[in-house]
Write a structure and sequence with these properties.
Elements (H helix, E strand, L loop, with lengths): L1 H10 L2 H6 L5 E8 L4 E8 L2 E8 L6 E6 L4 E3 L7 E10 L2 E10 L8 E8 L2 E7 L7 E2 L2 H9 L3 E3 L3 E3 L4
Antiparallel strand pairs: 1-2, 1-10, 2-3, 3-4, 5-6, 6-7, 7-8, 8-9, 11-12
Length: 163
């Protein structure tokens, strides 16, 4: 386990770990499998971070990406469900996290998901424990991507050329 943590420190610089403490802004957090594991996305200093692992322990996966390299699908503003999605890539692997709020069922908890892909094929899909989504707002990432020079066009996605 110590080797894994040391390897993670090489993948994600020290500020990534601080982001999961008192520094940075948590955009998404939930638990899985009866609270045994958790996922978190946060934003700090122009970078987005994804972490997954046992609750209360060092994460098994930590990814730090410039905001421009993180995929993000904002809520289009229509429909019964408010939802957003972020996507982190790591070689052949992809990690998509999303949340959904049913506007017609205000007493229902926020639903969160984590989908892991390898070479574009789904290899794992987890649904957050009911009621465990404690943070769910990817709009700060949207703003950070715009501040980095990216533009979003509904139906077309993100681009670097803003017309």
């Amino acid at each position: 386990m110590k080797t894994l943590v040391a390897a993670l420190c090489l993948i994600a610089p020290a500020p990534a770990l601080a982001c999961f403490g008192a520094v940075g802004e948590t955009l998404f957090h939930c638990t899985f499998k009866g609270g045994r594991s958790e996922a978190r996305v946060c934003l700090q200093d122009g970078a987005a971070y994804y972490a997954f692992g046992p609750k209360g322990s060092a994460p098994e996966v930590v990814l730090a990406r410039d905001v421009a390299a993180v995929g993000m699908a904002p809520w289009p503003g229509i429909g019964r469900t408010i939802w957003e999605e972020v996507a982190f890539g790591n070689g052949a692997y992809g990690y998509r996290l999303s949340y959904a709020i049913d506007k017609m069922a205000p007493n229902e908890p926020v639903v969160g998901t984590l989908v892991v892909t390898r070479n574009g094929e789904e290899i794992s899909a987890l649904t957050c424990d009911r009621g465990s989504v404690s943070a769910h707002d990817f709009y700060p990432l949207f703003e950070a991507k715009e501040a980095a020079g990216a533009c979003f066009t509904p139906g077309q996605g993100w681009s670097r050329s803003c017309n």
